[in-house]
Amino acid sequence: TYVIAQPCVDVMDRACVEECPVDCIYEGGRSLYIHPDECVDCGACEPVCPVEAIFYEDDLPDEWVPYATDNADFFQKVLPGRDAPLGSPGGAMKIGPTGVDAPLVASQPPQGE
Ligand code: F3S
Ligand code: F3S
Questions:
Q1: Which of 12, 36, 64, 88 is the most exposed place for a label (fewest CB within 10 A)?
Q2: Span between the terminal Cα atoms of the chain, in Å
Q3: The 4Fe-4S ferredoxin-type domain covers which part of the protein (predicted)?
Q4: Where are the domains of the chain?
Q5: How far is the CA of 46 from the centre of ligand 1 (A)?
Q6: Contact by Cβ (8 Å): 24, 92
């Protein structure tokens, strides 16, 4: 799978969402997240991110390796008003912004100050 790492936090450009052929990039409160079971590794999202936040999982810089787990954790959350984890079967567009974040993203100080 591809993974969205630290540079997306508080930036959320969303150019990646337009590129994904399987609509597997979901919106949290401070970052977007790629569903690891739905991503087909097409790589279309990676070059369009203006802050280079997206990496194939094996190519993550060392300091951002934990974002792979954090992306996956996001989809284990059961959101208010839902009775099951997000995705699979998925489709990020019909879900829209969720306003919640996985633990690592949530723990980041405000970015871009
Ligand atoms: Fe974030 Fe880059 Fe997508 S900033 S929303 S990963 S285009
Ligand atoms: Fe979509 Fe990017 Fe995966 S475009 S299929 S999230 S590599």
A1: 88
A2: 31
A3: 30-59
A4: 2-97
A5: 9
A6: yes
Kindly report, residue by residue over 5-53, the tens digit of the pLDDT.
Answer: 999 999 999 999 999 999 999 999 999 999 999 999 999 999 999 999 9
Residues with a CB atom less than 6 Å from ligand 1: 4, 8, 11-16, 32, 49, 51, 53-54
Q: Is the pTM of this model over 0.90?
A: yes
* ipTM field: 0.98
Query: What residues flank ligand 2, with Cβ below 6 Å?
Result: 2, 19-20, 22, 24-25, 34, 39-45
CATH architecture of 2-97: 2-Layer Sandwich (3.30)
The residue count of the chain comes to 113
Residue 22 and residue 38: Cα distance in Å, rounded? 7
